[in-house]
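G.,

No rush on this.
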Amino acid sequence: MAGDNKTGLDMNFVGELAKRIKDAQNDSLQVAIVCGGGNFWRGRDGLEIERATSDYMGMLGTVMNALALQSALEKAGIPTRVQTSIEMREVAEPYIMRRAIRHLEKGRVVIFAAGIGNPYFSTDTTAALRAAEIGADSILIAKKGVDGVYSADPNKFEGATRFEHLTFKEVLEKDLKVLDGTAISLSKDNNIPLLVFGIDETENITKALNGEKIGTIVDNKED
């Protein structure tokens, strides 16, 4: 959400994200989004704050991002609902699985914020859990600075190679940093494939939503 900035919100970038989602919209596509909050706060940054409190602060950052994205999507003409795992009814709905599914069936975009409502769990885990709950066909993971899963950090190691396909088992065995271990296990157990792609070129969002071949696919299928 910070665009080229390191922190805060870049509403031009957020507006571009909304436009790309709108470009991919069709009657058969249902879109749910999980927002992170790293542009405002990362739990590991709170060295002088105990972990649980720091994580809750990060959850509030995800709510700010969700509201900003909701505003941009609705300006683009896309009906959107924000649901939070921590109740704040004045600004968003509480997370209710069946209500979220009903919104999706009505063609609304649903944004999930505030993680799962508990500390010590990442946004990755939130995405995998919500995907399983709403019966998602896949999880699309948009990354800045990288366009898929690599054998090593391509920004640090010149010889790093990008994988086109991996199994969940390979990700765990190779200790590749796609999602955290809990999220990978949830996705594996529920057979929800992942697509990891770069968001620096925002048109990749439209391509990913349209099922075009980009980035790295992670699933249970052996080559």
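When you get to it, here's the other one too:
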Amino acid sequence: LTTGLSSWFHNYENSLVFFGLLLMILTMIQWWRDIIRESTFQGFHTSKVYNGLRWGMMLFIISEVCFFFAFFWAYFHSSLAPNVDIGSCWPPINIFPLNPFQIPLLNTAILLASGVSVTWAHHSLMNNDLKSATHSMIVTISLGFYFTILQMLEYMEASFSISDSIYGSTFFVATGFHGLHVIIGSTFLLMCLLRILMNHFSSS
């Protein structure tokens, strides 16, 4: 997938991208199948397995913090001490940034609201209230996809591109990876919603 994206960005054919996406989707489907089979039907998820999954999630979150810290470091390094190559000013000359009080502020509110609704879903599951868990999960997934649509509109509205100096690079790489995380998270939550509808979860 990474090789295909690199080739596509350099104006080569995009068939490798679709092949990589297909392999990734197949891997996700088979992984979900194995998790559902082992935890729900075979009872293989003992306390040791649960602890391993918890540690795996904590290490994953730490790696994500480090991942995005690098993007913030690049942004602050370039904005607090602008190089002479970009006019010694921030944002660089002829770069017109988006208004932070329009779509970016709305997207922030949407993400905060989705955090509230997914917490509502978790507490509903802990109390065996599957109806509330289903409703709150639908709200969370809808907010995730709404965020993605607004992110796409923001990209279409931007007057600069990823090749427009360090500003365009840091903006599109950071927000692009963040948007990708939202899409993947919404997909995983959609799978959780299907499992709620099939009564795969309980308060224990």
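Helices lie at 2-9, 15-41, 47-80, 103-126, 130-157, 165-197. The mean pLDDT is 90.

Enjoy the weekend,
O.
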